[in-house]
Amino acid sequence: FFFTLFGDTRRKATWSAGGHDAGRQGQRAARCATVAMAFMKVIKNKAYFKRFQVKLKRRRQGKTDYRQRKGLIIQDKNKYATPKYRLVVRFSNKNVTCQIVYATLTGDVVVASAYSNELPNYGLKFGLTNYAAAYCTGLLIARRVLTKLGLADTYKGLTEASGEDYNVEEVDDGPRPFYCLLDVGLKRTSTGSKVFAALKGALDGGLDIPHSEKRFVGYDSDSKELDTDTLRKYIFGGHVADYMSSMKEEEPEEYAKHFSHFIKEGVEADDLESIYKKVHAAIRAKPVVAKKSKKKPAQSKKWQAIKKTYEQRKADLAEKIAALKA
User: Please, what's the b/e burial string for 192-228 (b: 16 or more CB within 10 A of its CB; e: otherwise)?
Assistant: First the structure.
């Protein structure tokens, strides 16, 4: 028999004795079609590619975390063009870089910078990427920027590293301390990371940086306390001294390779603490390096051909004509 579906007289269903079997076969076919659809390749058409927008260049290169950067540089509108300073800390295989930077619409501006390859000028000629060197670089950038801004005498920081957490206090009858935010980039912020050694150096140098002691080496998550002795040990290279002593006894050949720069400078494990103390004192005594005066060369070099006068060009032409006639 026939009946009408959805009021459309053209669409009719016929029920017969074999209708149930046909229905089951249709369900199986539908399931097979659904499974096949899951493996079909999605073809992106021209409309998709016309609307595709590539990510920013430094995001594509994997160099900048823009969500982190936005939080560090965004400024309240009621503060107008007041710079928002960042302490940028970066590590390479052979160097530690610390910079005080603020962002503008045309690009970042570097106020001051310090590098661990400057530490040989202060008496540290080995181990320029370890925890103690990162602390020295942070101390150097802090003293350098405060000297540049005329705040070095007002905010001297922690004159002797003790491993205790230090927060600079604002003076009543003077300018406020220099405030900045820590920019770690893509480095993983695990407890004991060297990036927080640079932070500790900058804090002891007199900068005002919001922080927590939970990331310094020596913090115990169970007791929720900072072991200041452990932190002080790392600041003065005590962990390196322990490693030197153990390796020298157990593997003298590996010790000669691993600590070749230390051996070249005649440094033993027991000498490290006194050396780092001298480096800290030297940084505080003279954080800013005098610029070298550029001398004018005795004979200036000209890379372009000197233009000839009319008489010289006329003489050259006469020589060419005479050569052709000869």
Answer: ebbbbbbbbbbbbbbbbbebebebbbbbeeeeeebee
